[in-house]
Amino acid sequence: SLRMSLLLWWSLYYPVSISPLTEATSTQPACSPQGAFELPGFSAQGDFMMGGIFPLHYRVELPGTDYTHQPLATMRLAVEEINQSEQLLPNHTLGYKIFDSCATPVTALRAVLAVLNGQGEEQSPMCSGASPLIAMVGESGSSQSIVLSRTLQCSMFFQISYFSTCSCLSDRKEYPTFFRVVPNDDYQVKAIASLLQRFGWKWIGVIREDHDYGHFALQGLKREIQNTDVCLAYDEMIPKDYSRERVLQILEVMRHSTAQVVIVFSGEGELYPFLKEFVKQNITGTQWVASEAWVTANVLAETYPFLDGTIGFAIRSGKVPGLRDYLQTVNPRSPLIPPCSGQETLLEQHSAYMNTSSPRVAYNVYKAVYAIAHSLHNLLHCQAGAGPFHNRSCAHSTNVHPWQLQQYLQDVSFNVSGENMNFDQKGDAIPSYDLINWQRGPNGGPRFVTVGLYDGSKDSGKELLVVSVCSASCAPGSRKAVRRGEPLCCFDCVPCDSGKISNQTDSIDCKECPEDYWSNTDGTMCIPKVVEFLSHDAMGIALTVIAVVGACLTVSILAVFLHHRTTPIVRVNNSELSFFILLSLTLCFLCALMFIGEPTSWSCMLRHTAFSITFSLCISCILGKTLVVLAAFTAARPGNNIMKWLGPKQQRVIIFSCTLVQVLICAAWLMAAPPYPSRNIQDQHSKIILECSVGSQLAFWCVLGYIGLLACLCFILAFLARKLPGNFNEAKFITFSMLIFCAVWISFIPAYVSSPGKYTVAVEIFAILASSFGLLFCLFAPKCYIILLNRASSETQPSQAALQPHQCVRGNTVHLATTYAHVPPQENARARFDKEILACQTLS
Questions:
Q1: Transmembrane segments in this chain: where (predicted)?
Q2: In a shared domain, residues 131 and 141
Q3: Is residue 1 part of a domain?
Q4: How many Cα atoms within 13 Å fall on the side-chain side of residue 683?
Q5: pLDDT (tens digit per residue) in 246-292
Q6: CB burial string 339-349: b at 16+ within 10 A, e below
Q7: Phi, psi of 329 (to 5 degrees)
Q8: Which of 17, 170, 519, 636 would be 426's cystine partner, CB 3.0–4.6 Å?
Q9: Statement to judge: residues 290 and 380 lie in one domain
Q10: Contact 72, 56 (CB under 8 A)
């Protein structure tokens, strides 16, 4: 349909009467215009002519812009600079023919035909032969450029656009002669998608114009956000022929949508009347994201203050030397639309037209003209035999065809204002954008502030750089928290909670790690949780060494008692009970070793049952010993024969019975709900604690409670014997040992409950070892002292000490061995001591 429209307009504007093929070679076709082309035009003669199509006016009513458009002046400035240059195109000059497109495809078609054929010329050079034009600069709008490109293809003219960004124009099959000094929209939509991700805008709306630019931009944006968490709330199109009813429908959609971020792909000419109606609807809270087509539209910024805060990507700005001075002195050379007389100089200092600090569109026009000039320079300086054409020939400098110049344009590379300029195989320029934010200056006027950039040549994920924002970007490992009452661009960065991560910049939420994973220190990735149990690390080895030392020490004492089992000190202290106590203490020390290492089903069952049974055996033996001590003291009274009920057999029955109760409790525990290995992820979320679950809490506390019951009973009985005669020390030792035992296990309970991870097991082992050492030292240290140290003393000084018989106390003789007196030298002190002990046994 587009080609048919072109042919239609061609026939209307330049009806051509062509003779049959046999006559075509001899008859020259005649072209006659249907009417005068009355739009503004500018021209200057030169050796080589360039065409220029610029939107000097919009097709809609805009506030006071009836002056020459800035890109036009830039093209004229560039041509004059080149003509005055001694390095570029020496001895040759450039000329131009420039017409107004009014920013519409139809008028752009009329303009390009006027450029090719001239205004009011009845004999068209295009119809009569080769055109003197070599290149075309234009257009700004993508739809206009499509019309120009298809028209120029007929005569193999190439075109350089300074502002057309539609990705469709990169199709070399459809547009083989199209070039541009701006990136195509494929990169713009990538930049916008990166911006949405950067600020966490996931719910968006799109407004677009009804032209190729809007259609292809929307397709590209949908493609870029397809695999992201950005969703499109609505997509509305501004009608090509303005309709207030249709615009009101679009505004109604915007009013009822919860999407507050709106992306607009439109030229400022189409957008102006839409925004004019938008103001009347009182829609607030909209964050506008502008495409490069209007992101630097000064007219919109001055007219609609509600657009403050708009953000979007603009083509890169650059410096055009001498542009401001040129604009202040230039005079229009052809009549303009009233009220201009054609003689005004543009000296208004604060006009948007005079803002040349960082031109964008004008800078691209400047680059386009220089690209043509450098290509023509290379063509004219071609060396014979080194050309790009057939048989390595060069073009004729007096008859340059546009298709020949295009060959040089494709390979041109030059530097302008510090920027390297070249074209890729599709005729596109290097993809690069400035990120623009609309702000207000101190005087209240609009400012387009560059707050970042997008470089499409960089690696994926590193293209976007934001350098000026209300809040600095939140690094991975943190999330954005919007500040109450402030714009969306202002936020705080809050570190992700433990167990949550964010691996992207400016994340608005942190993701929770799976159950067996935890966040790393930076909060940027989930790593497997640390598996913790009391292993053979430094603490485990230390506890192992202490337990082994305790067991060895107990076995050594047992060996001492066995070696001295015939001595009165061992015999009087009920050697059988002493052996049982030492044996059970050895097992108590060794059972602590089962608590070290990775828990298994067997180790979990053994560690608790072995511990409870061995301690029950130990306390039962001490209980039997306490009963015998009390009975022996009571038996010394006349008529008391209680000792016959506490003989060796009865003592064994007491020990067996007390231990059997604990065995039965453990058996019931193992059958009902035995301990088992478990993975504890509740107490410490960053770790997986391998521990032994007790299975039945009731059984566990029954086991500990029974041991505590035996210990308390033993403590009470020994406490009752505390007032026995001063030399009767065994009851005091038992009392003190039970006091230490009870203190250790009472303090164990809160420490056990509050200790985290492997320290829970370490506390339990410490309680076992501490109570075992307490019993060992309190009960057997004095006896070992008597057996070993006093024996050595008596053998080295036999004449200085002897046992005093009056110290003998019925039922107990422990303290007798510590009391000595002077005896005659000829009498053996040890023999005297043994006799006194036997005497005490006889009394008992």
A1: 538-562, 577-597, 609-633, 653-672, 698-721, 733-753, 759-781
A2: yes
A3: no
A4: 16
A5: 999 999 999 999 999 999 999 888 898 899 999 988 888 899 999 98
A6: eeeeeeebeee
A7: -110, -15
A8: 170
A9: no
A10: yes
Q: pLDDT band for 122, please (50, 70, 90 cuts).
A: very low
Give the total number of structural domains in the chain: 5
Q: Are strands 30-31 and 16-17 parallel, antiparallel or unpaired?
A: antiparallel
Work out the burial of residue 793: count CB atoms within 10 Å of its CB; fewer than 13 is exposed, 13-18 middle, 19 or more buried: middle
- For residue 181, the 8-state DSSP code is S
Res. 233: pLDDT tops 90: yes
Report how far residue 583's alpha carbon sits from residue 659's, in angstroms, rounded to the nearest whole number: 14
Q: Please tell me the distance from the alpha carbon of residue 197 to that of residue 192, in angstroms, as a whole number.
A: 9
Nearest Cα neighbor of 97 from 68, 130, 151, 133 is: 133
Q: Is 134 helix (H, G, I), strand (E, B) or coil?
A: strand
In this model, does residue 463 exceed pLDDT 90?
A: no
User: How far, in Å, are 21, 29, 671 from residue 25 at the CA level?
Assistant: 7, 10, 114
The tens digit of pLDDT for each residue in 350-375 reads 455 555 656 788 889 999 999 999 99
Q: How many of the other CB atoms lie within 10 Å of CB of 498?
A: 11
The reply to whether 208 falls in a domain is yes
> Do 437 and 565 reside in the same domain of the chain?
no
136 and 245 together in one domain: no
Please report whether residue 16 resides in a domain. no
* pLDDT at 230 (0 to 100): 92
Q: Does residue 201 sit within a domain?
A: yes
Q: Which domain holds residue 637?
A: 538-795
Q: Which residues pair with 803 in a beta bridge?
A: 820
Residue at token pair 């102006």: 272
Angle between helices 730-754 and 697-720 (to 10 degrees): 150
- Name which of 661, 576, 674 is nearest 613 in CA terms: 661
Considering the domain architecture, whether residues 93 and 126 belong to the same structural domain is answered as yes
293 and 372 belong to one structural domain: no
Contact between residue 646 and residue 633 where contact means Cβ atoms under 8 Å apart: no
Query: Cα-flanking dihedrals φ and ψ of residue 216, to 5°?
Result: -70, -35
Dump the DSSP string for 193-224. HHHHHHHT--EEEEEEESSHHHHHHHHHHHHH
Tokens of 594: 């089962």
Q: pLDDT value at position 9?
A: 41
- The 10s digit of each residue's pLDDT in 140-159 is 888 889 999 998 888 788 99
Query: In the prediction, which pLDDT does 639 show?
Result: 52
User: Burial letters for 824-839: b for 16+ Cβ neighbours within 10 Å, e otherwise?
Assistant: eeeeebbebbbebbee
CATH number at residue 771: 1.20.1070.10
d(CA 157, CA 149): 8
What is the phi-psi region of residue 589: left when phi exceeds 0, alpha when psi lies from -120 to 50, beta otherwise?
alpha
Q: Enumerate the β-bridge partners of residue 2.
A: none
